[in-house]
Amino acid sequence: MSEDRVEYVTQASAELPQNPKSYNKLSIGLHWLMVLLFIAVYATIECRTFFERGTDMRNLLKEWHFILGLTIFTLVWLRLAVRVLKPAPPILPTPPKWQTLLARLVHAVLYALMIGMPIAGWLILSGEGKPIPFWGLELPALMGPNKDLAHEIEELHELFGKVGYFLIAFHAIAALVHHYFFKDNTLVRMLK
Description:
There is one protein chain. The protein is mostly helical. The chain contains 5 helices and 2 strands, in the order ααααββα. It has helices spanning 3-14, 25-47, 56-85, 97-127, 147-180; strands at residues 132-134, 137-139. The chain is elongated, with a radius of gyration of 19 Å. The two termini are 34 Å apart.
């Protein structure tokens, strides 16, 4: 990396103010925005079942599911960049090592889902030969039409969607347990 690039990255990092006891404002904002997007992504795909296949409303909900999923995919890269520039503040008091390792594992899998699930959705639409909408744009297909492969990817997408329900719930419950039972700053770091 060139000296100019290193200086630019260092300057950009310095411009993200951070209280050592909490995440920076951009990280906090992105976290809660993505919570809302996750709720919307899951709500759109669950609510589609109230409408018959092929109806306009069902198709609209599926389209919004995809658009919002790709929005998560786009924002996760910004979250990761901010996380590299401004690492997470420490949990105080320091939790046992096994809790720290478990938290890292859950975070890694959540980030993998935020990247992998939208790509899987993109592959599904590509394989079905359908348009790939994204906020008024039509994205290129990631593969040629292949309905059998698209169906297999869709089954994995649904399975990992269920894993996502569990992990999101676990993540939220763990934050509450840390706040109310362990009385540490795990949750507070993401609120201030």
